[in-house]
Amino acid sequence: MKIAIPKEIVPGERRVALIPDAAAALVKGGLEVLIETGAGAEAFHADAAYEKSGARIVPDAATLYGQADIVLKVQKPTLAEVDQLREGTVLVAFLQALTSSELVQRLAARRITSFGMEGVPRISRAQKMDALSSQANIAGYKAVLIAAESLAKFFPMMMTAAGTVFAARVLVMGAGVAGLQAIATARRLGAQVWGYDVRAVVKEQIESLGAKFLAFDLGIADAEDKGGYAKALSPEASRRQQELLAEKTKDFDVVITTALVPGRPAPRLVNKETVAGMKPGSVIVDLAAEAGGNCELTEADQVVIKHGVTIHGPTNLPASVPVHASQLYARNVTELLKEFVKDGALALNFEDEVIKGACVTHGGEVVNEAVKNALGVGKTA
Ligand code: NAI
After folding, report:
1. Angle at 281 between CA 277 and CA 287, to 5 degrees
2. Is residue 116 part of a domain?
């Protein structure tokens, strides 16, 4: 069975789906590994390192796709890439299937068995396959570095002969994976840090990182669903939240926003009035830029200055840490691979929670319930 790793073609994407160490483990397990030449270059893995691990280098994507049984990617493929895959190929990538109708239909029509890394459920057994978390952790870390670089102040308190400077005040909104890493990183840089989330259960986690929990009552009974995710707020509760946050946000030098409700547009936490109320020179880093932004004035992949506040909307921070992002992603995909490749052959068990969550298309059909519901698609072939 041939496992194929193409070079990522999305501009700015520096990650690679498999690093040489992970390739070596697959080869040892009896699989053949094909790498498109240069696939690991942006993450500092030369072709020679893959060859040393037992993989074979192929000269271009067409040759690679022409032989592949299983393709491992980071970014979702373009339709042109899908069309190069042979019928029955297995594809693993961040498909963003819930919002990629055309791609999902094409994958089904081409009878590709596709897995979306974003669909791996956040259950204990699947933690090692959870690429959303491994990459969000990187984004939380990098968001703080961007904020520190952009802020015209120190992060730590300093007592110098020329006087004392006070520590920067940082507010992290949304304390999931990215948010908790942002809190920890800002603390390491010496800032005074507050964390905020609708789910009250995270108070303890925020405090265990040495930060304070920003608390206020939205008058809602339970903000958490059965899966441990936040529920979307009602328009009334959302308005109230924005008003209360506007009041609190005035005091902060840095606001990092990471709020997410899966499958929904980013919850709006910071409106334009809130930005106008912040001190000139303050910085916002909005990690939800791709889903519309937690801040009303965010522009995806841009840095804008509004009311004297610098607002960053980066959408692919993991690509800016390609060495570790690829290392962690490679572990995530190879662990997922073990779930459906047994003794060198495909073994799909659709009763399994991980397969049910991650598999999007199979046998010419969209098989994933969440994707079917989100896209309103059923049988397509
Ligand atoms: P997560 O699901 O672990 O955390 C999201 C948090 O937001 C949860 O704790 C949830 O309770 C909270 N939340 C939801 N609605 C809220 C509201 N109205 N008010 C306050 N808190 C609310 O998600 P994760 O993995 O930490 O990702 C966070 C965000 O970062 C996502 O939007 C994700 O797409 C994004 N991301 C961005 C990257 C980038 O490069 N820009 C890279 C990776 C992730």
Report:
1. 80
2. no
Residue range 225-254, pLDDT digits in tens = 777 788 889 899 999 999 999 999 999 999
Residues 190 and 284 occupy one common structural domain: yes
Looking at the structure, do residues 152 and 263 belong to the same domain, yes or no? yes
User: Distance from the CA of 244 to the center of ligand 1, in angstroms?
Assistant: 20
- Nearest alpha carbon to residue 306 among 328, 333, 329, 277: 277
381: pLDDT confidence band, cut at 50, 70 and 90?
very low
Q: Which atom of ligand 1 is nearest to the CA of 135?
A: 43
pTM of structure? 0.95
Cα–Cα nearest to 333, from 139, 120, 108 = 120
CA–CA dist 69, 148 (Å, integer): 45
Cα of 380 to ligand 1 centre, how many Å? 32
Ligand 1, atom 23: nearest CA belongs to which residue? 176
Residues 279 and 170 in one domain: yes
Are 215 and 225 contained in the same domain? yes
**pLDDT tens-place string over residues 93-119:** 999 999 999 999 999 999 999 999 999
pLDDT, tens digit, 9 for 90 and up, residues 199-225 = 988 999 999 999 999 988 887 776 777
121, part of any domain: no
Q: Return d(Cα 185, Cα 148) in angstroms, integer.
A: 11
Contact 282, 309 (CB under 8 A): yes
127 assigned to active site: yes
How many structural domains is the chain composed of? 2
Task: Tell me: do 12 and 95 sit in the same domain.
Answer: yes
User: Of residues 127, 208, 234, 302, which has the active-site annotation?
Assistant: 127
Question: Domain boundary at 275, 305, 320, which?
Answer: 320
Does 169 share its domain with 245?
A: yes
